[in-house]
Amino acid sequence: MKDDITREERVAGLKGMGCSRKRVEDARFTQGKGNYVDDIKLPGMLHGDFVRSPYAHARIKSINIDAAMALPGVVAVLTAKDLEPLGLHWMPTLAGDKQMVLADGKVLFQGQEVAFVVASDRYVAADAVELVEVDYEELEVLVDPFKSLQSDVVLREDLVAEDGSIPNGAHGPRKHPNHIFTWEVGEEEATNQVIDNAEVVATEEMYYHRTHPCPLETCGSVASMDKVNGKLTLWGTFQAPHVVRTVASILSGIEEHNIRVVSPDIGGGFGNKVGVYPGYVCSIVASIVTGVPVKWVEDRMENLMSTAFARDYWMKGKISATKEGKITGLHCHVTADHGAFDACADPTKFPAGFMNICTGSYDIPVAYLGVDGVYTNKAPGGVSYRCSFRVTEAVYFIERMIEVLAIELNMDPAKLRSINFIKKEQFPYTAALGWEYDSGDYQTAWDKALAAVDYTGLRAEQAQRVEDFKAGKTRKVMGIGLSFFTEIVGAGPVKNCDILGMGMFDSCEIRIHPTGSAVARLGTISQGQGHATTFAQILATEIGLPADSITIEEGDTDTAPYGLGTYGSRSTPVAGAATAMAGRKIRAKAQMIAAYLLEVHDDDVEFDVDRFVVKGAPERFKTMKDIAYAAYHQAIPGLEPGLEAVSYYDPPNMTYPFGAYVCVMDIDVDTGVPEIRRFYALDDCGTRINPMVIEGQIHGGLTEALAVALGQEIAYDDMGNVKTGTLMDFFLPTAWEVPNYETDFTVTPSPHHPIGAKGVGESPHVGGVPCFSNAVQDAFRPFGNRHTNMPHDHWRIWQTANSLGMHG
Amino acid sequence: MSNKMHVKLNVNGEDHEFLAEPRELLIYALREKLNLTGPHVGCETSHCGACTVTMNGKSVKSCTVFVAQADGAEITTIEGLGSPGALHVLQEAFKEHHGLQCGFCTPGMITRAAKLLEENPNPTEAEVRFGIAGNICRCTGYQNIVKSILAAATELNAAKEAAQ
Ligand code: FES
Ligand code: FES
């Protein structure tokens, strides 16, 4: 046989890995034909809405639902009393704690779910919510975790024994009724010894404020209990649909095979949609009670007040070095405000996530991390907002400590980083706090970044600007923000990562159709990352069928293989690996079929782009299309018919993407307004599957970093009132505030990943936050600034300038 | 509630008549009564623009328009902009330049962008950024959205010139 197209054309025709394939999702999204949870409409469907607590801490004396029930169109009003017989008034959290589904005797944060109204439509439900009378007795409110640890006010009476003793929590002993856990990693004594005897020590306290992922689509679910067949179907905004099915089964007692969970299109997640929320549970119960489908979709205020906050870490650091700038030790203590219930979404054995990546990209011989979790009267959550389990906090911490140490040493912070980078030849590198970094070449990336922005030139310009400012020639100061980050993503090895006991593997199942097209199903779920596009590219390269002939499906637990879902940048590292491995199983069988068809030994054929060729005789080949056809159309001795494969992938290690970012900012000291003049982002995510999609992820992640660093926060007053409950107060940047970003890359493949990919979706957020923050802080460094807390909104920047005497 | 109003709308060229409470919002009528689920709800407070439609020649946030206010209006939603075989230039441009990720803001964003290009066929980058500042996107960082809109403007202008 002869081919009329070249090998290059065959490669291009596959649209496999490495090309900027256009997204297959876009046709439906651009035409308004996405199918999000609120678009689901079922016959007879009812609508649920919550009565929520106006108080942050109060006892409930009574709930009167009579007036609400009397309203035409109201079908049910559920309270904790109705859920109690089913054992559903409380539910387990992902962090080993439990959480009230509906207020059981008291409320612990403003916006807490008190009763669930079920009515014919949304307007009636909202009217009925107003008619439910709840009599509260206010209690003392604790919003400060430090005060909470000293207070006699017990927030969680359910966690104190009758004799007043404090039983252990899910993560060991607790020191106080409002204390959740202490988590320690590393060697405290040895670290203290090094720091006490060091030539130079820098200490700093910093607060990483509470914020929220706030995807454009809020959370919601539609539950439909089919009583005839005993089947429950649940559609919802789930970043981990399979886990939701297991949890729903455990909670409801419905056997798992009788539950189908579907994540339809998801309008952004960023961590918000990892948790299991009372609304999901209530929609299920309401459907079971009423026998018809029930929809619950939260509004924006409910989203910001009650589901999934992020961060809220009070961090205290000590870092020591030689006079020449070689870091010798690092000590970090965190007081973690977890709100009213510990509902953090972390792997079970990591109550503070991967905060122990806080040694960053640096070779630090000895380190210690201690984290104390604390209950307060704030919403539960603690999700990884566009990051892998507290990595954003860790990277912010170390990148601020480096800057502070540079001030202490009177050294350029870029140089200080260079002195301390883990060297290329040290990989795989075991950090003082236990992680084994897979691969990296930090210095090369750093040098490339500094050269790209002309770092020396920028520093000279900044020095001139300081002169000009002091001479009264300008009112604008200039900041150069640096950050070098290493992420830890792709959770993770089953041996140390699980959620509710389920190992954090992921999966892919492939079916090749007789005519040479295919469907692949995965245990993950896209929320905008474009999995349907990129996973098909991985497969195209692995199995030699065009990406355009491969359908990717996710999110339906009846059809997809079990997986732990999409968050923590785990889709590419884990499900991407499963995809490649399943593809290789297909290829292995295809090789046998090809050899049979070509009448040679299995070892005498080899894979080439889209076909198997006889070694040394490239004119003798069978394309994957031919092979697929043969797999279904002829008996092949010794082989089962068909061409299918499934792979469950347990990663041997995490992956460690890294990057070097530089931000140049001009700040008007009289208005406090920062202008981002330039942002350069170099990312190394290992093998690049789709450069267009990678770049899009970086733009988006940086913009979310900008938001967090420059203004976005969930703030409470002393009474526990949420001050930032609408988009009026909660900062989401618009096109007007956001700069154009310059993106760049190096490629250091992961040695243990089948295709060498590391994941990228969260890197720009993780690296971006310290970069924006450092730019603001660097602008004021020549005037005496050492550290100020985020978010750097205009008012706070103005205050910084004012406190440094820059207003005359 | 019994005091329902008789409302007439022309949506994407089709006439509709229905009864609605005066307090009913336009976005609700479009999504729940007319099954046009392209426009989305992101905030219900006029901040995010996910619900953007064109009403009587102006971009409006349909989450803060009572359907009673819209009585007699001509409305275009994303569903009225292009069809599967003949996408609007903006729909093509968003696909081409990766102007969307989760797609939740996209219908409102494209509907707004279409109006913007009618109002100002030759916008500068700054004018595009200002012109879509009422539409929030949480995924893309806007860079590729701006690129898509500028590319669409160029294409629309070229088509206009060719037609002359
Ligand atoms: S839903 Fe209308 S502006 Fe947000
Ligand atoms: S693409 Fe997700 S909000 Fe814009």
From TrEMBL, chain A:
Q: Which EC number(s) are documented for this chain? A: 1.2.5.3
Q: What class of enzyme is it?
A: oxidoreductase
State the reactions this protein catalyses.
CO + a quinone + H2O = a quinol + CO2
| Gene3D superfamilies xref list | Aldehyde oxidase/xanthine dehydrogenase, a/b hammerhead, Aldehyde oxidase/xanthine dehydrogenase, molybdopterin binding domain
Q: Which residues form the Aldehyde oxidase/xanthine dehydrogenase a/b hammerhead domain?
A: 31-140
Keywords, alphabetical: Copper, Metal-binding, Molybdenum, Oxidoreductase
Gene Ontology molecular function: any one: iron ion binding
Question: What is the top-level taxon of the source organism?
Answer: Bacteria
* Cofactor list: Mo-molybdopterin cytosine dinucleotide; Cu(+)
Q: PANTHER family from the xrefs?
A: ALDEHYDE OXIDASE 1-RELATED (PTHR11908:SF132), XANTHINE DEHYDROGENASE (PTHR11908)
Question: What is the annotated quaternary arrangement, including any partners?
Answer: Dimer of heterotrimers. Each heterotrimer consists of a large, a medium and a small subunit.
Q: What does this protein do?
A: Catalyzes the oxidation of carbon monoxide to carbon dioxide.
Name of this chain's protein: Carbon monoxide dehydrogenase large chain
Species of origin: Antarcticimicrobium sediminis
TrEMBL record, chain B:
PROSITE patterns assigned: 2FE2S_FER_2
Q: Carries keyword Iron-sulfur?
A: yes
Using the record's annotation, list all stretches that form the 2Fe-2S ferredoxin-type domain: 5-81
Q: Which domain of life is it from?
A: Bacteria
Keyword terms = 2Fe-2S, Iron, Iron-sulfur, Metal-binding, Oxidoreductase
Q: Which GO terms describe its molecular function?
A: 2 iron, 2 sulfur cluster binding; metal ion binding; oxidoreductase activity
Statement: the UniProt record of this protein carries the keyword Metal-binding: yes
* InterPro entries for this protein: 2Fe-2S-bd, 2Fe-2S-bd_dom_sf, 2Fe-2S_ferredoxin-like_sf, 2Fe-2S_ferredoxin-type, Beta-grasp_dom_sf, Diverse_Oxidoreductases
The name this protein carries in UniProt is (2Fe-2S)-binding protein
User: Lineage, please?
Assistant: Bacteria, Pseudomonadati, Pseudomonadota, Alphaproteobacteria, Rhodobacterales
